[in-house]
Write a structure and sequence with these properties.
CATH topology of the largest domain: Rossmann fold
Strand order of the largest sheet: 3-2-1-4-5-6-7
Shape: globular
Structural class: alpha/beta
Helix content: 40-55%
């Protein structure tokens, strides 16, 4: 029960890594506020966790993290429900497939608003409470923050920005005993990828069994394998870890 008595906010909570993190936090005794734009997916995740953990204390908020006002609404609702904030896991994210020569201003705005600015805004709104609790922030970036690709430049630029934001926040908040760290997941078998490959005739079982050249372990990660390091960084076991970037990528090939 490494998070017993603690309250966490997790964005992108209805997706693969987010949902797995909510589950791990509940298993370790945390109260969790789940945030996602997909209300139906949130209900499904809530139902599954409440089925498996009858004593889980959860609150779901269906909000668009690309809207600045959502961050204040999340913090206000969390403090109203649970009275404190100990952990923020910034995990919300959307994708776009555009070469830089074709990248539109509208797409840039959507990607940066959700994938980077939401991290800054939610952190800003939560920091007064995190200072009181001497809590911490875990930002979910990507291996592509340091290993960008052709065709997803906007996404990769935002993920690189998260690493800079993480270190800046860590430096600024150290005097207040607030830790800030980042994880960079590699190839992770989330529902997004399962749906994407289903259109190509590959099942989830096929993907789990196949050998890939993307990383040294030659496989996809299960979302839980990313949730474990997030849990560790959020726990007191990582009390001397801040401004760190943890690669959770199976040894991604450059």
């Amino acid at each position: 029960m490494r998070l017993a008595g603690k309250t966490a906010i997790i964005t992108g909570a209805a997706g693969g890594i987010g949902a797995a993190t909510v589950r791990r936090f509940c298993e370790e005794g945390s109260q969790v506020v789940l945030v996602d734009i997909d209300a139906d997916a949130l209900k499904s995740v809530m139902a599954e966790i409440e089925r498996d953990h009858a004593k889980a204390q959860l609150k779901a908020l269906a909000l668009d993290m690309g809207v600045e006002d959502s961050s204040k609404a999340i913090v206000d609702a969390t403090l109203s429900q649970f009275g404190s904030i100990d952990i923020v896991v910034n995990n919300a994210g959307i994708r776009s497939y555009e070469a830089m020569i074709d990248a539109k201003a509208e797409t840039w705005q959507k990607i940066l608003s959700t994938n980077l600015l939401s991290y800054a805004f939610l952190s800003r709104e939560a920091l007064p409470a995190l200072r009181r609790s001497k809590g911490n922030i875990v930002n979910v970036s990507s291996t592509h923050a340091v290993n960008p690709r052709a065709g997803m430049g906007q996404y990769d630029v935002a993920k690189a920005g998260i690493l800079s934001l993480t270190r800046t926040l860590a430096f600024e908040e150290a005097p207040h005993q607030v830790r800030v760290n980042a994880v960079c997941p590699g190839l992770t078998l989330t529902p997004f990828h399962v749906r994407r490959f289903a259109s190509q005739g590959k099942s989830e079982q096929d993907l789990r069994a196949e050998k890939v050249d993307h990383n040294l372990q030659r496989r996809w990660a299960d979302p839980r394998e990313v949730a474990h390091p997030i849990l560790w960084l959020a726990s007191d076991e990582a009390s001397f870890v801040t401004a760190a970037t943890l690669m959770v990528d199976g040894g991604t090939r450059v």
